[in-house]
Amino acid sequence: MKILVTGATGYIGKRIIPMLVNEGHIVVCAVRDKLRADKHYLEEEHIEIVEADFLNAETLNNIPKDIDVVYYLIHSMSNTSKDFESLETQCAINFKSYIETTQVKQVIYLSGITNEEKLSKHLRSRKNVEQALASKKYALTTFKAGIIVGSGSSSFEIIRDLVEKLPVMIAPKWLHTKTQPLAVRDVLAFLSNAKGNKALYNQSYDIFGPEILTYKQMLLQFAEVRKLKRYILTVPVMTPKLSSYWLYFVTSTSYKLASTLVDSMGIQIVGKPSDINQILDVHPISYKEAVKLAFEKIEQNSIISSWKDSFISSGRLMNSAHKYINVPTYGCFKDYKESPVLNAETTIDKIWSIGGTTGWYYGTFLWRIRGYLDKLFGGIGLRRGRTHQTDLNVGDALDFWRVIYADKSQKRLLLYAEMKLPGEAWLEFKIEDGLLKQTATFRPRGLAGRLYWYSVLPFHGLIFNGLISELVKS
Predict the structure, then answer these.
(1) Composition of the chain by helix, strand, coil, percent to 5
(2) Which residues of 273-296 are buried (b: 16+ CB within 10 A; e: fewer)?
(3) Using one digit for the tens of pLDDT, what is the confidence trace for 197-236?
(4) What is the SS3 assignment for 107?
(5) Integer Cα distance of 408 and 21 in angstroms
(6) What distance in Å separates the CA atoms of residue 18 and residue 29, rounded to the nearest whole number?
(7) Going by DSSP bridges, is the β-strand pair 168-172/47-51 parallel, antiparallel, or unpaired?
(8) What is the pLDDT of residues 57-93, one digit of tens each?
(9) Left (φ > 0), alpha (ψ -120 to 50) or beta: where does 169 sit?
(10) Are the C-beta atoms of residues 405 and 325 closer than 8 Å to each other?
């Protein structure tokens, strides 16, 4: 089959693409920016990458007409509560208009369980998209999943933050809300097994794990897997806004995403039984098993995708990466340093491992203080860390930076700042002519930006001198 995967750089998209290739299919990956596509895709003969922005109908002409099956995995292209619903619906309308002109036989849409009349904005948007995708020209198969649990998933990482950081939790009453978590491996099994199955044409199914759990039970079971003793007290006085701040300050999520999650967590998510497990021969594992498998992936350093790498987790950057590759020079402040490289391979490996649990080699505590200050003023802080300890791809989150360009063969890494700033900032590492060239660029916004630059200048001298010295050590 020739299969189109939309949302190819997303959490599920990155995981299902290698599965489809291993099954012998030709996979067309639709991305808004080719620079964000996994670099391994360029080397795979069974993968074709096309640029398509589903908010721009004209770009959809880049998608081949001879597609058999489509996975529609586009979600929340904007995370602002005012416009993400209309944007998601418009994407679906544009997609449908174009796909109806192709030979596509089946569209498989991954949605969320919507079994209550009162839906969160997030789930209401999923329902609207399903309605917009329905067509007489192709068959629509919809899977409505419960909370997805897997290494790098938002629910897993947020629960991990709460459990591992807080021995005692005073938590909102929505921790008593019931849900049915589903392992990411089972989500992928449902999606993969459904392609080309005519029995599923124009059908919708809830897919969920074998247990009905409250969020409190999920936290406590997670703690059991980690062999941690945790105590949780729920209080009825936390407003949605206070709950959002609670999640924001304790976990790695942004405030906007925390607000969206709180909005959804008050809604019970229990699936409607069906015979889909028997039809596709998928038998979902328990929540504890899903958590254990997720930690196996973490320990093997083999996390395929993470919600943190989505631009939705960004505090600032919401557009295509290519717009930020050309670092400006006019009206900018620069901190430029260079140093002879004793061993280029060692230095590159250090650069590609920077941040996350490795830290920043010199003055890491100062970077952490900057992260705490960023969090205090509504930024993302350092808690996002990084998905992989030694590998970097365009679009990856790296603490409060975003990877804009990463090419080991060219010995160049470019980062764009997503912290709260009165301006824009880039940090570049490049090896040329036996020298490591390290450049911090800041484009100030107004007087506040200029005052900010001069106020942090003494710290830059300390941090950046120490950083380049450590990077060039053999």
Answers:
(1) 40, 20, 40
(2) eeebbebbebebbebebbbebbee
(3) 999 999 999 999 999 999 899 999 999 999 999 998 888 7
(4) strand
(5) 25
(6) 11
(7) unpaired
(8) 899 999 999 999 999 998 764 444 457 678 888 888 9
(9) beta
(10) yes
